[in-house]
Amino acid sequence: LCVRYALEKKAYDLVVIDVGRYSSLADYFVICTGRSDTQVQAISQSVEENLARMGLRPRAIEGYTRGHWVLIDYGDVVVHIFLDSVRAFYDLERLWGRAPRLPLPEPYRSQARDLQLANTVG
User: Which pTM value belongs to this model?
Assistant: First the structure.
């Protein structure tokens, strides 16, 4: 669901990492990028508001006001929404390099791929 609602706001470079074997913080990290602080905030709002409608409330949200790196903690799942330069600086994928990336189910895999292609072209 986090993937779905992030992609609805055109998050790109979206990955899901299974960190459960390597961390007690969460089982999964959802990591994605927005093109501006406004888009980062919109992605965050989409995830939070849509999950809230289902009765799922985050334990914590950090970084929303600035919109450079928003972290939404749902316990088992932590969503990281970055500006591109901030994501490159912290490089969570390298930090958690041993943890496997999970394949996205269709149609999310195609949507994420299309958004990634649009970002490299545009």
Answer: 0.89
